[in-house]
Design goal:
Keywords: Hydrolase, Manganese, Metal-binding. The protein has 18 helices and 13 strands. With 564 residues, it is an alpha/beta fold.
Length: 564
């Protein structure tokens, strides 16, 4: 119960203070140096909350959650670019813990609240620039959650590496909790550190399981009836103990709701049956028991989100809908580049045809700056919870000089700029969205219900859809040839593995750009003029097997690159 004597916000403030003391050189004893808990670079709800929840309960060394956003400082930009996380944080911390004040997402004071409680990679880099610690810091210990390999690996020490945007700090990975394919990066993990690699719908499910295994979060909800002891107690001290227990129960209620958010989001409220594992259902039960515990009910009552005055059980459907809606609506406020970069991951792979050398290090340029020299290829995969036609329309509307026929051109120009900025040789855009059932006579596979559905919505007859767009940005020489060969190899594998079908608009509102888009993508138009559309190798498909997400698609792309 020692961890639960502090609220989530108090813990976050303390961890940020620890970070500043560490950089200032005011922490000298090894047992007091922090371990940074780092999520993956997509920085989605699962990654951020996995880091927060594990860091909260971890001990005895202080743990500092680090949000893996190299270009986004905490504050107003974090609020704008990750509104679904803010929604989850807001719902989890309301009602406010004892002695704390409620807060609102849109309040003028919220950016300051975020800056004083959360740490991003961009913040870390800014703090480092203001100190001289970079020259004196040894390798900094880290636990990875929702991924299992740092992108910039040490060539000599397994488990050592750096983060993009924070290259001055070498991290030494001492633990890992993840549900992705093993990247063969991790060193041997000590028995007192977390280590769990297992497929699940949500990484937070594994975090909860790991914390329970380590004895840091017990499965029994806190309540006055669960507080038992064989030691005689001073009757005068009982009220204080009860008050402490009530406060701890309120804190546990907050952490339980926060942890449940990504589990519901990543399993589409448990309707994406192909994603749900036993670990997800067990963690759900673990957390629901705490949320619905008698002590929390007495403390929080009907004002907790989703609990109506006539019910005693917390409504997770309403909780899920609030967060899912915030995630979907957030894209309307972003630029096309921000949409593409919002849920984005990248990898570097060496084709078998390349003669690898130190000069072929990761970080190839999609602009062809490497000339005709064979080298590693850089792959970027973006995931968007809107249709491809929606992204095309957004690019068109953001370009005041566009006409209807140039909407695809506007999108491809945005994609080309995005790829060049990141030095990508191969770009994959995956879309995932709900909509009406396909009108074609041959239905494609779909889950039993759409994301965001709950009991009472089955009559909408919505299906879940996925699309896949693959492109090789304009480049010259053997580098482009290798990237095109890799893209073609991936498509050959994916036709069967992903059930690729000819692209067609899936939503009524997408029909207007459908044929123009197909004309733009058609093979015979790919080399007609010096524009992104003309010089970009590209292909687009409907993904018939909607059960395959980026976790399954990324290995196919990477294997294809390595094989050429």
């Amino acid at each position: 119960m020692s961890a639960l004597n502090r609220s989530l916000f108090r813990f976050l403030a303390q961890s940020l203070q620890t970070h500043h003391r560490f950089l200032a050189g005011r922490i000298c004893r090894p047992e007091e140096t922090p371990i940074y808990v780092i999520g993956n670079p997509s920085a989605d709800v699962d990654s951020i909350i996995s880091a927060l929840v594990y860091a909260y309960f971890a001990h005895p060394r202080p743990h500092v959650p680090l949000i893996n956003l190299p270009d986004v400082p905490s504050g107003s930009e974090l609020r704008r670019l990750r509104p679904e996380f803010l929604e989850a944080l807001h719902l989890a911390t309301h009602p406010a813990a004892p002695t704390e004040q409620p807060w609102e997402i849109e309040a003028d004071t919220t950016p300051d609240l975020l800056r004083s409680h959360l740490l991003t990679v961009a913040d870390f880099a800014a703090h480092l620039a203001q100190s001289s610690a970079a020259d004196t810091l040894p390798a900094v210990d880290a636990v990875l959650v929702d991924w299992n390999a740092l992108p910039n690996r040490s060539p000599s020490q397994k488990g050592h590496g750096t983060l993009p945007g924070l290259e001055a700090i070498t991290f030494n990975v001492v633990g890992c909790i993840d549900h992705h394919v093993d990247e063969d990066f991790l060193p041997p993990i000590a028995a007192d550190q977390p280590f769990l690699l297992q497929p699940t719908g949500s990484c937070v499910s594994l975090v909860v399981s790991m914390l329970e295994r380590m004895g840091r979060w017990t499965p029994h909800p806190l309540s006055s009836s669960s507080s038992t002891t064989t030691t005689p107690q001073n009757p005068n001290a009982a009220p204080t103990a009860d008050a402490e227990l009530t406060t701890a129960a309120a804190h546990e209620h907050q952490l339980s709701k926060l942890a449940l958010a990504p589990i519901l989001i990543d399993t589409a409220n448990f309707t994406a049956k192909e994603k749900v594992t036993d670990a997800d259902t067990l963690s759900y039960s673990f957390l629901r028991a705490k949320i619905n515990s008698t002590n929390c009910q007495q403390q929080l009552g009907s004002i907790a989100v989703g609990i109506s005055s006539g019910e005693k059980l917390w409504d997770h459907h309403a909780f899920y809908r609030r967060i899912a809606t915030a995630k979907e609506n957030s894209l309307e406020l972003l630029t096309v580049a921000e949409v593409l970069g919002r849920d984005y991951k990248e990898w570097v792979e060496v084709p078998s045809s390349a003669s690898s050398s130190p000069g072929d290090a990761p970080g190839g340029s999609g602009s062809g700056s490497s000339g005709d020299q064979p080298a590693a290829l850089k792959i970027g995969i973006s995931s968007v919870v809107k249709s491809l036609a929606w992204v095309i329309r957004k690019a068109h509307h953001s370009n005041s000089n566009s006409n209807a026929s140039s909407a695809p051109e506007a999108f491809l120009a945005e994609l080309d700029a995005f790829a060049r900025q990141r030095g990508l040789d191969l770009v994959v855009l995956m879309t995932a969205f709900a909509g009406p059932a396909p009108s074609s006579p041959s239905p494609s596979p779909s889950p039993s219900a759409s994301p965001g559905s709950s009991p009472g919505t089955a009559a909408r007859k919505e299906h879940f859809h996925r699309e896949l767009f693959v492109a090789v940005p304009f480049a010259v020489g053997r580098r482009r040839d290798t990237a095109v060969a890799a893209a073609e190899a991936f498509v050959r594998r994916a036709r069967t593995a992903l059930g690729l079908e000819r692209w067609r608009a899936r939503l009524d509102e997408d029909e207007a750009v459908g044929q123009v888009w197909l004309d733009c993508v058609a093979q015979e138009h790919q080399q007609e003029h010096d524009s992104p559309a003309g010089n970009m190798w590209k292909g687009v498909w409907v993904q018939g097997d909607v059960t395959k997400s980026r976790k399954q698609v990324a290995p196919l792309v990477r294997e294809a690159v390595c094989a050429v």
